[in-house]
Amino acid sequence: MPKLTAKNYYSHETDWEYMSFSLYKDFKNCEAAALAKLNEDWQPTSSPTPLLVGNYIHSYFESPEAHQAWLDRTETGAKTNRELMMTKPTKTNPDGHLRAEFKLADQMIQTLKKDRFFNYVYMPGEKEVIVTGKIGGHEWKGKVDSLVLGKGYFCDLKTVDDIHKKHWNDENQLYTNFIEDRGYIMQAAIYKELIKQSFNKNCQPFIFAVSKQTPPDKSAFDFQGDTKFLMQEAIDEIKENQGRYWQIMNGEVAPKHCGKCEYCRLTKELSGFQHVTDIEVD
Ligand SMILES: [Zn+2]
C-alpha cells in the first residue's frame, strides 16, 4: 500500500488503494464513467476555472508559502496557475489582466480574512491534514482543510455560487440546500470517522462557506441537530454500496452505464427501442 503524501494524494495510483469521498460520489453518479476516469481512459471536459478559484482560495488560507507555491505550480500543460489566472495578452495590454473570476476570488478571500469568527475558528487549525482509516472493512482516505485536534473540531472551506440557492433532490423528491446537494454531510461523516481512527479523537465538523456573489456572502455551519442522524445514514449508505464499487474496481463486476452523463452520451450505441412512456425525466 503506497503511503499517502501531499504529492500522491490526488493521484489515480492511490485511488485504486483507498476509497475517497470524491471517488465514491463518482461511482454513485455513474459507475462506467467513474471507472473510465480511474483507468485514465476518459476525463470530463469540465471548465477548470471553478477548481482553480477553489484552490486559489484554499491555498491562501493554508499559508503564504503554500499560496506562492500554488501560484508557481504547473498543473497540466506549460502554464503556471499564475499565468492561467490572466487573460490573453493584447497589444495594449501585453501582460493581460487578472480574470474577473480571480478578482472575485480576491473579494471572497478578503471577506473571510477580515471576519473575526473565521479567524478565531478556522485559522488556528493544521491545514490539509491527510487522514486514513477503515470504513466497513475497506481503506479510505481524506484530506481535512483545517484540523484543531486540541479543541476537538475540524473545518472545511467551501465555495458556492449562492448559499441560499435551492437544489432538486430526485431521490427524496424535494428541494435541498447546497450542502446536502453536494453530499457534504457524507464528507463530514467520513472525515469525522477517519480523524477518529487516525488520532483517536472525536472531532465535530464545521463548514465555512463563501459565495461567488458581489459582494460575497459567507456562513458557518455545524452538524448538530438532525444532521447527526443524516451523518450516520451516510455512513450506513457507504457500507451498503461500496462493496459493489470495489468489485467493479477489481474487475469482478461490470459497471452500469447511467445512460445520461457526459461519458455515457459519448460512448452510447443504440440497440433497440424503448417505450415513449419509459423516458426518465427530472
Ligand atoms: Zn453515465
Query: Biggest sheet, open or closed, and with what strands and sense?
Result: 5 strands, mixed
**Helical percentage:** 40-55%
- Termini distance? 41 Å
User: Which distinct ligands sit in these coordinates?
Assistant: zinc ion
What features would you describe in this structure?
With 282 residues, this protein is of the alpha+beta class. It has helices at residues 12-15, 21-29, 31-38, 49-62, 64-72, 81-84, 100-113, 116-121, 178-181, 184-199, 227-249, 262-267; strands spanning 126-135, 138-148, 153-160, 167-169, 174-176, 204-211, 218-222. It has a domain at 12-41 and 116-268: Alpha-Beta Complex (Lambda Exonuclease, Chain A). The protein is 41% helix and 17% strand. Zinc ion (ZN) binds at residues 30, 32-33, 257-258, 261, 263-264.
